[in-house]
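Researcher: Let's continue the batch. This sequence belongs to 6028_t:CDS:1, and it's 396 residues. Same format as the previous ones, please.
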Amino acid sequence: MKNPSYRYPRTSSLHRTILCLICLLTIVGHAQGFRILKKSHYIVKKSSAYSGITIRDDNGPTVNQAAIPFPHVFEEIYPEDYLDFLVLGDWGYQAKGVGEKKGDQVHVASAMENMTQEYGTQFIINVGDSFYKSHRDDYQGVNSVDDNKWKTVWSDVYHGRLAEIPWYSVAGNHDWYNNVTAEVDYFWTKNHRFFLPALFYVRHSYFGPQRIKVTWIHIDTNIFYYDYGYLDDRNSLKSNFRAFEMDKPGMITDRLKWIEEKLEENQDSKWIFVVGHHPLIGSCASKHLMSRLPLLFKIYGVTAYFSGHSHTLEYQSSKLSSPTTYFTSGSGSRFGSGCDGKDWGVPSGTLGFLHVRINGNSSKLDFQYVNATTYESEILHQGTVDAIPFIYPKEY
Ligand SMILES: *[C@@H]1O[C@H](CO)[C@@H](O)[C@H](O)[C@H]1NC(C)=O
Ligand SMILES: *[C@@H]1O[C@H](CO)[C@@H](O)[C@H](O)[C@H]1NC(C)=O
Ligand SMILES: *[C@@H]1O[C@H](CO)[C@@H](O)[C@H](O)[C@H]1NC(C)=O
Ligand SMILES: *[C@@H]1O[C@H](CO)[C@@H](O)[C@H](O)[C@H]1NC(C)=O
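Model: Same format as before. Here are the C-alpha cells for 6028_t:CDS:1:
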C-alpha cells in the first residue's frame, strides 16, 4: 500500500488528467423515469465473454468471466440537481403466510413505490440475496435466465417507478448457492434494469448542472466473508467458488488490489460509495477477510458502504477511528438480527429499506430508514453523513 498521506483531500484535476475512462453506457434519468439513450452503447456483443460462457484461456485454466471485474466504467448523467436512491437487500423471500399471495416483500415494495414517486428516485441499490428458497419445493437463487422467479419474485412484485428505474446489484450468498452466472447473464441477455454486468464493477453518476461526480464500486463480498477451506463439501458455495477459481488465494488478493486501484483512481469524486452484500458493522467486520475492506475505505475516504445480509436495518456512524459510515439494509423480506457494535438499529421483527438523498448544493447526504412491515409505513430514523468524513493529517 502506498503512503496515503498525499491523498487527502481528494484531488481533482490531477487525477482527471490521468484518467481515461471509457464510458460504455450513458443513462439519463429524468423526471419521467429512466431511459436508455442509445441501446447500441451496450456492448452486448463484445461482452459475450462476460456472459456466463466459460472460456478457456489457451495457457491456462478455465475461468468464469463473471468473476472478473468489469474492465470499463459505466456512466450515468442525471440532469436533476439531486441524487436519490433506495437501498434494498435480502428481498427475494416469498414465504407465503396465510391468505398472502406474495409474502412480506409486498409491503416493502409498496412503501418503496410510494417513496420513489414522491422523491423522483433515480435508482435502486440492490445489495443482494435477490432470490431465496422460499418454500419446500423451491430452490435457492435462480436456475437460469429463463427462470420463472425473475417474474414471480421481481417484476410481478415491484411496480410503478420501481419497474422503470435500474437496480444496481451485487450478489449475495443465496445468489451464489445456485447459478450466480445466470444473474449476470440475465443483465446481458434479458433485462438491463437488473444491473449486474459482472460480480465486480464501477459506475460513475454525474448529477446536476455542476456534474457532481459520484463513484460507486460494486463488489462481491462472498469471497471475503466465507473461508473456502472451511466450507462444507456439501455447500454449493464451495463448488461454485471453485468454478470461479475463487479457491485460489491469488484471486482474492487480486480482487483486493482491484478495489484499491479503483478507490485510488476515483479520488476526484465528491462522493465514493462501496456496495457489497455482507455487513462491516462492529463484530461482523471480523469475519474471514472482511477486515481488509475498512482499512482501504479509511485510507481512500469512502463516504459510505451499503450492505445487507443481516436481516435488519442498522448502521455504524462515522468516527475518527472509522470514518466510513456503514449502512445495513437487509430486511426486504425477512426478519433477523444484526451485528454487535452498531450505533443504531431496529430489533428483529421490522421490514424496510434505506432512502438516501444528496442535494447538489450540499456536502451532506440525508438518509432515512423506513419501516415497511405493514402497509402503514413510517420513517424510523434519519440522519446526515458528510461527503468526506474526516480529513486525515499525515500518519495513521
Ligand atoms: C402507498 O400509498 C398507497 C396510496 O396512498 C397507500 O394505500 C399504501 O398504504 C402506501 N403503502 C405503504 C407501505 O405505506
Ligand atoms: C447457469 O445459467 C446459464 C445462463 O442461463 C446457463 O447457460 C448455464 O447452463 C447454467 N448453469 C447451470 C449449472 O445450470
Ligand atoms: C415497524 O412497524 C411494525 C408494524 O407496525 C411494528 O410492529 C414495529 O415495532 C415497527 N418497528 C420499529 C422499530 O418501530
Ligand atoms: C439545497 O437545495 C434543496 C433542494 O433544492 C433546498 O431544499 C435547500 O434549501 C438548499 N439548501 C441550501 C443550503 O441552499
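Researcher: Any comment?
Model: The first helix runs from residue 13 to 18.
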